[in-house]
Amino acid sequence: MKYDVVVIGGGPAGMAAALKAKEQGASVVILERDVRLGGILNQCIHNGFGLHYFGEELTGPEYANRFKTKVEQTDIKVMLESMVLGISEDKVVTVLSPKEGLVHIEAKAIVLAMGCRERTAGAIALPGTRPAGIYTAGAAQKISNMDGYLVGKKVVILGSGDIGLIMARRMTLEGAEVKLVLELQPYSSGLKRNIVQCLNDFNIPLYFSHTITKVEGMPRLTGLYYAPVDEKMQPILSEEKYVECDALLLSVGLIPENDLLNGMNVQMSNITSGAVVDEYRMTSLEGLFSCGNVLHVHDLVDNVSEEAEIAGECAAKYALGKLDNKGTKYNVKAINGVRYALPQVVYGGDGKVRVFFRVGAEYRNTRLNVKCGDEVLLTKKYQIVAPGEMQHIDLDKSKITGDITLELEA
Amino acid sequence: MEKLDCIVIGGGVVGALILDELSKTNLKAILLEKENDVASGASRANSGIVHAGYDCTPGTNKAKFNVEGNALMWDLVKELHVPAKQCGSIVVAPKEGLKGIQELYDKGIKNGVKVEILNREQTLKIEPNISDEIEYSLYAPEAGIVSPYKLTIAATDRAILNGARVVLEAEVKDLSYKDKEWTVATSNGSYTAKYVINCAGAGAAKINDLAGADHYETEFRRGDYFVLDSTEGKAVSTVIFPLPTEKGKGILVAPTADGNVIYGPTSIPTNEGDTGTTLDAFAEIRKNVSLTYKCPNYRKVIRTYAGVRTIVGHDFIVEYSKKVPSFIQILGICSPGLSSAPAIAKYVIKLLAEKEDVKVKENLVPLPKKKKLLELTDDELNALIKENESWGRIVCRCEKVTEAEIIQAIHSPLPATTVDAVKRRTRAGMGRCQGGFCGTRVIEILARETGKTIPEIKKDMGESQIAISRIKEDSHEV
Amino acid sequence: MKGRLETICINCPMGCPLVVEEIDGEIKVTGYTCLRGKKYGEQEYVNPMRVVTTLVLCEDGTAQPVKTSGPIPKDKIFAVTEAVKDIRSSKNTKIGDVIIKNVLGLGVDIIATRDAI
Hints:
The structure holds three protein chains of three kinds.
Chain A: E1 2-8, H1 12-23, E2 28-31, E3 47-49, E4 58-59, H2 60-72, E5 77-79, E6 83-87, E7 92-97, E8 101-112, E9 116-118, E10 134-136, H3 137-147, E11 149-150, E12 154-158, H4 162-173, E13 177-182, H5 192-199, E14 206-207, E15 210-216, E16 223-228, E17 241-244, E18 247-250, E19 254-256, E20 288-290, H6 301-319, E21 329-334, E22 338-342, E23 345-347, E24 352-359, E25 363-372, E26 375-385, E27 391-396, E28 404-408
Chain B: E1 3-9, H1 13-23, E2 29-32, E3 49-50, H2 61-80, E4 84-85, E5 89-94, H3 98-111, E6 116-119, H4 120-126, E7 134-140, E8 144-146, H5 148-161, E9 165-167, E10 172-178, E11 181-186, E12 189-198, H6 204-211, E13 219-228, E14 239-241, E15 252-255, E16 261-264, E17 268-270, H7 279-292, E18 301-311, E19 317-320, E20 327-331, H8 337-353, H9 378-387, E21 394-396, E22 401-402, H10 403-410, H11 419-426, H12 439-450, E23 469-470
Parallel strand pairs in B: 1-2, 1-12, 2-9, 5-14, 12-20
Antiparallel strand pairs in B: 3-8, 4-8, 5-7, 6-7, 10-11, 11-12, 13-16, 13-17, 13-18, 15-16, 19-20, 21-22
Helix pairs in contact in B: 1-5, 1-8, 2-8, 10-11, 10-12
Chain C: E1 2-8, E2 17-23, E3 26-30, H1 35-46, E4 49-50, E5 53-58, E6 63-68, E7 72-73, H2 77-83, E8 88-89, E9 98-100, E10 110-112
Parallel strand pairs in C: 5-8
Antiparallel strand pairs in C: 1-2, 2-3, 4-7, 5-6, 6-10, 9-10
């Protein structure tokens, strides 16, 4: 089997990338491990998707369906229940599926669009017992929104990530009592609208700078202890409190799922846990592209779609020998309060390049300076910037003459 | 009631290996386990180390069984297809620890164990990442690692194939001896046999009391651990111990037989069944690991767990009761219990042979090796998929486990009936996402294969349902 | 009449902190940075509206996601979730299908947001 572009993952990133690649005239296959296209959007039944991309508010499945319908109108080959077991550096993709068996696909370009996974109780070393009743928020969401079952009646949520907030409302609407939401940081990592519409609307308390000190109950969760943390993030045990609950949902971070790249010669970012990419979303391995949550975790799917379109279009151009990536490369660095910027590499030339960035903490009344050497290319004021909300700026490529730094003004 | 020769109480590694040995003989045996799977106590939560036997006091049961057990282990794991590796171990010490290393060496020689004292350079060749302060080590090349729960499960499976029976969820309520027969009443039936073999681990002293056998006081010590991602698996190639103390062998850094790395255990006095980890314990592990190992990587932690050691005096007890007849009591099998289990099992058969005419059966059924996706060639895999497409359906992404492997586990001689039972047999859910993606698929497959509803499927022991009720059906709680 | 509401604008990721005050029948919003924010503040004070997304149970036991076809008064959220509780959707449901017409007379429909699975 041979394709110009092999897209790994059939969620929002994969579908958008595949469609753009197809527009360029490439032959395209999407390898999706689930039984349907759409990825995690299928279980995100809440609304709020698509305001930027479609100019209207959609639910997750509706957003996915728009892309799925378009994919079905093309001759993009879609392989479902197809798990990629490996990629070689000469771009042979090994994929396993019940229908086609073990297949090796020769690709001219590969787009990684596998999304992310959730941090687990184990990864955060949650102290106490390990009973039934502890779920990542996304797993609880799948059990509820796809399978049609509830995981508990008295719920505590650790972490104020968006999936946790969304699940607070979901469980409330299903008749469960969400007792509280605990957040280790002094700010929320979720979107403001979710704080308002998922917690405030239902009077669910959110405690910042709090963590769980011990989980109790075996074989099923019966309750947990929680406490505020000091400035070193250590729990203040003298202020420990107990809450009875039969379910604990964890919304404590998402990690790009780049396991396929283990052992491959692809430059990775320690901060995003995704690949280092240039403005075409091409990794350090020629012809290997990355986009969506496998590249860096996004807060809005609209941004995922846009990023994936860049990756898909450029992957097709690369495959068809049309990608101009021979210009001078400049690094984009994030310092002084900016946690990361992406892409990490831009090319000189004409036109504009959009650089996304995320800050490391909540800052009010601050200013972003984008510098090239000592020259300030751009400066922008922010009333508030928070880690939970990705920002972007557009730079004139003609002004770029060296490596770029993004920093917040002290 | 059927006539039995032996009732084995307790489905830990000791009980499973005894049942396996019994199933090779003319003696009819049954194993009673109070939980819904074997390896539900200490045998599921320990370090998985096959100790060489240098640190046991010479002349003790511990020394004898450990050295014999280690020698038996490597053929046993091959027969049972259990992941294991004779990777050797080092006890590392700073300059001032040479005396301690020398003492261990002397004990090792007395116990008949192959040991060697290495200097820093020699130690670095075996394990490049020992901490900078380490000057000496005691190297024991015969030590190794094994998956303790897979050993228990595989031994049970083979025993069943050879005619032994296993009753799960059979908590012992009463034991009585009458007309040269023991009757054991459990929460899941009553059983009668000539002999009782009590290897109930944490509950063994209670069983002894119920039977009127010798009374023992039990102490419990909890050991907490970190488990690291298999991507760290290559960072450690041998078992790294500190010098042992009164409390035990200390906090080690070791590869696991399944390709992960563990840091632990602590040794904290506790009560029976307290497998909850604590913040203090995590801090203690962090502090101690860096004394022996230079590059701990806590970012790669995927799981924490704790197991409970059962301690009865200073030595293992493996003998006939002095107070009641035909009652073999096996107590206090803490470390090096896993290493000793194969030898303890053989010794129990010897004890029985003192009173019974024990004959080895002919035509023993070998345990078939289960196929695993990661061990198949392309052609073998495609042939399997043609026959049965579930070989092409990956359920656990992290550990690459197919639906076919999960179905195999559910229909094993000792069937896996819970999500964790499937996990222990197939590794589905053991990876970095900890079942976040595959957990619900495993539930569906379990429900389908066993004819149960989704809310009936349990995570693990007891009432550990994962999905508790259907949406919109409040009144229909399960 | 006097009233006050502190809330956060949800129209975009900016999340402007809004203060809505009613003094002598006049509603004054502060804290917004665009007109959508001003309008949102007023709306939240006078008659907060929400699109409700929830589940109904499909006849085959799976979950069927649905939403209100438009926003409804915030204080009617639980009435709506109660109204869909006993509905069993068809396993042939397609995205966009109307599950309940004009739910509770609120002038909006309950519609499917995904094909039945």
